């Protein structure tokens, strides 16, 4: 019996449903770090975790959002004139720019439509499975040439389980390799039917200490670790990723516990070290959210190589940068 047959029984989706939609906030073409080969990377909105260093804060809320990029604003006033709910106004202080009242905003998108400078955008759009598949199919020739495929990320893609599973099933039916980038923080009864249509699982190990994991992400790591062990026992290929955060999860103790856990995963393909960067910090401000780790200094290349060596000496295949 292969691993797909060992996953929990479930009802197959059947024909594509045009009424089933998912909330997508980005689709990246020609991704090369998210599952092998050239891939289409589909970002689904909504996440049960709130990692302090998240580089995609626009993925956290399970609803569309408005984002304001003040540096792009040319102060033309078009957005204010287009807003019918009175949600946009100039700050009283001179040269302070625009203020968007998110409580008044109806997310109608008129401001973004009239913003010629691209300073205002609505993050998140609803796509049906056929609409999404039409986008994925455009790059089919690249999948075949490079052994690539489609990867569903987030946010947390399993937070939209019905849409995700429908898209995965249709992708596999068309012979497209499928992968998910998931926190693995999902009940097994939800996870199991999704895994039936997944060729590869990519999961971050953010911290091995449960109390620290709760402090840093808002949730326990016990469900995550348990799910990874179950996935491995089923024979599902896994790539583990370590978002390497200075002073947070780079201690000798945490690195050792991470290596010990990874050794239990007999379907591990690679262990990816993802060095900390601050590329997402600006987006936190654009969403009027607090970035709590702005004082961190990224590791040097030498420090990263030493950490990679630590894992390699324990027989773990390491890739830096995913």
CATH architectural name of the largest domain:
Alpha-Beta Barrel
CATH topology of the largest domain: TIM Barrel
Unreliable runs: 1-15
Whole-angstrom Rg: 21 Å
Largest sheet: 9 strands, mixed
Give helix % range: 25-40%
Give the full name of the CATH homologous superfamily of the largest domain: Aldolase class I
Count of folded domains: 2
Describe the protein's architecture and organization.
This protein has 322 residues and is an alpha/beta fold. It folds into two domains: 3-61 and 126-320, Aldolase class I (TIM Barrel, Alpha-Beta Barrel), CATH 3.20.20; 65-123, Alpha-Beta Plaits (2-Layer Sandwich), CATH 3.30.70.20. The chain is built from twelve helices and 13 strands. It has helices at residues 3-6, 78-82, 110-114, 129-137, 140-146, 161-173, 188-195, 210-217, 222-234, 252-262, 281-286, 301-312, and strands spanning 21-31, 39-44, 65-68, 88-90, 98-100, 120-123, 125-128, 149-153, 177-181, 200-204, 238-244, 268-275, 318-320. The strands form three sheets. The chain has a nine-stranded mixed beta sheet with strand order 7-1-2-8-9-10-11-12-13. The protein is globular, with a radius of gyration of 21 Å. 35% of the residues are buried.
């Amino acid at each position: 019996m292969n691993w797909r047959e060992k996953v929990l029984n479930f009802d197959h989706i059947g024909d594509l449903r045009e009424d089933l939609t998912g909330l997508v906030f980005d689709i990246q073409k020609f991704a090369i770090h998210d599952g092998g080969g050239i891939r289409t990377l589909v970002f689904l909105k909504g996440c049960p975790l709130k990692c302090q260093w998240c580089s995609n804060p626009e993925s956290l809320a399970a609803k569309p959002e408005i984002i304001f990029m003040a540096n792009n604003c040319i102060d033309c006033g078009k957005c204010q004139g287009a807003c019918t709910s009175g949600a946009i106004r100039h700050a009283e202080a001179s040269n302070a720019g625009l203020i968007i009242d998110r409580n008044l905003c109806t997310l109608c998108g008129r401001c973004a439509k009239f913003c010629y400078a691209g300073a205002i955008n609505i993050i998140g759009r609803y796509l049906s499975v056929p609409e999404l598949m039409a986008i994925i199919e455009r790059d089919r020739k690249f999948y075949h040439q490079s052994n690539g495929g489609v990867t569903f990320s987030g946010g947390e893609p399993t937070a939209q389980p019905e849409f995700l599973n429908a898209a995965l099933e249709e992708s596999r039916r068309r012979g497209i390799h499928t992968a998910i980038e998931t926190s693995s923080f999902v009940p097994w009864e939800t996870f199991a039917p999704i895994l039936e249509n997944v060729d590869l699982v990519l999961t971050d190990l953010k911290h091995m200490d449960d109390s620290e994991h709760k402090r840093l992400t808002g949730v326990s790591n016990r469900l995550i670790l348990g799910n990874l062990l179950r996935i491995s026992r089923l024979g599902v290929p896994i790539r583990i990723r370590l978002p390497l955060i200075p002073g947070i999860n780079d201690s000798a103790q945490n690195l050792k516990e991470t290596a010990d856990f990874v050794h239990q995963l007999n379907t591990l393909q690679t262990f990816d070290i993802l060095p900390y960067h601050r590329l997402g910090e600006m987006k936190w401000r654009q969403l009027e959210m607090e970035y709590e780790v702005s004082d961190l200094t990224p590791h040097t290349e030498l420090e990263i190589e030493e950490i990679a060596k630590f894992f390699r000496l324990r027989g773990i295949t390491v890739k830096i940068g995913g």
